[in-house]
Amino acid sequence: MARIYPQRMTHQHEGPLVVFLIGMRVNRIFRPDLWMPVFMAMPRMLAELSADSSSGLLGYRITVGAGGPLVIQYWKTPEQLYAYAGDTSAEHRPAWAEFNRRARKVPGAVGIWHETYAVDRAESMYVGMPVTGLAAATGSREAAAGSRAAQRLGQPRTAA
User: Fold this and answer.
1) pLDDT for 105-126, tens place per residue?
2) Looking at residues 128-154, what average pLDDT do you find?
3) Which burial class, exposed, middle or buried, applies to 111 when counting CB atoms under 10 A from its CB (0-12, 13-18, 19+)?
4) Is 26 helix (H, G, I), strand (E, B) or coil?
5) What share of the chain is helix, strand, coil (3-state, %, to 5)?
6) Domains of the chain in sequence order
7) Beta-bridge partner residues of 73
8) Is 34 in contact with 110 (CB distance < 8 Å)?
9) Under a CB-based contact definition with an 8 Å cutoff, are residues 43 and 94 in contact?
10) Per residue in 8-56, pLDDT tens?
């Protein structure tokens, strides 16, 4: 079982980063020939990225919700994210080409979506949690006593 930190923890990253959300939705459950290759491609890409410390991927978290699987990725820069997406020698391009080929056969059987957020700073708080999210991707540390979200985000404290 993961170690639980009862104290207030935050992440260690300072400065800009990219949060990349990528998800999949199975619209035709009885067509695993169309959605299973998409589902199986992501672990290969994450393994490839994790093995290369210069890829720019800081870390990731996989979740499953009502809409299907979702991967939350933390990157150093948008340029590194886009470089991986366009790298013809990496796992992504062949997987994307294969998805497009299959998707043309039965449009709408499986959906893919992504959102990219380039942020200049981030704030986090974890209490009674194992290291997770941005803290797992960048490292964690105890939050300063009495700190507030706005302060951790670099905002001046305002009078109440």
Assistant:
1) 899 999 999 999 999 989 999 9
2) 89
3) middle
4) strand
5) 35, 30, 40
6) 1-12+123-155 (no CATH), 17-119 (3.30.70.100)
7) 20, 60
8) yes
9) no
10) 999 999 889 999 999 999 999 999 988 899 899 999 999 999 999 999 9
Single-letter amino acid, residue 2 = A
Distance of CA 86 to the CA centre of its chain: 18
Question: What distances in angstroms separate CA 111 from CA 25, 29, 87, one per listed residue?
Answer: 5, 12, 22
**What token pair was written down for 117?**
């957020």
Q: Are strands 9-11 and 140-142 parallel, antiparallel or unpaired?
A: antiparallel
**CA pair distance 128, 8, nearest whole angstrom:** 8
CB atoms under 10 Å from CB of 56, counted, come to 21
Angle, CA of 138, 80 and 89, to the nearest 5°: 120
Other C-beta atoms lying within 10 Å of the C-beta of residue 90? 18
Picking from 47, 61, 52, the residue whose alpha carbon sits closest to that of residue 83 is 52
Instruction: Name the residue type at position 41.
Output: A
